[in-house]
């Protein structure tokens, strides 16, 4: 009887020890999992905030592109709605900074490139947000390529211009950059820039309101 009692007590003691070990392991695993989840959310938040800051910088560039494009469109409209006889020499000269400039604009994408290669994307639960991020940077890249193509073409036309740089000698029969500005390039540049700006601003608002 005593042997049986001792055996039961040993068994109970063993089970208690096993239970303590199991519970300890479970707590450790849960704590590790919780810390891991917390770290993942922290990393996602850091990357999303970095993307927001980068997009805000790109918005400033887009504002500059739009301001430049609007001037280009005004000059294009002036040429398109006037024949050579009705063109005013002083009006054309007032657009000199527009038709003889080929400014280049630089958009930032380093944060997005890091985001793509970091592996953090898989921790973003909001897949619609993730797609929106890809879309806005896709628009920025498309616009950047269009701007590069446009400015390359414009620089080529500038080199071909046979006009005197002394605008006082400008002849009305030689309308500066007529070929370039009677295409749809200036209008398309403005359209794409405005759409990308709107998309970028909406993305910034989404990132600001995102709760992890």
Write a structural description.
The structure is a single chain. With 212 residues, this protein is mainly alpha-helical. The chain is 76% helix and 0% strand. It has helices at residues 2-80, 89-94, 96-99, 110-118, 127-160, 178-181, 185-209. Helix 1 (2-80) runs antiparallel to helix 4 (110-118), helix 1 (2-80) runs antiparallel to helix 7 (185-209) and helix 5 (127-160) runs antiparallel to helix 7 (185-209). It is rod-shaped, with a radius of gyration of 32 Å. The mean pLDDT is 81.
Helix-strand layout with pairing:
Layout: H1 2-80, H2 89-94, H3 96-99, H4 110-118, H5 127-160, H6 178-181, H7 185-209
Helix pairs in contact: 1-4, 1-7, 5-7
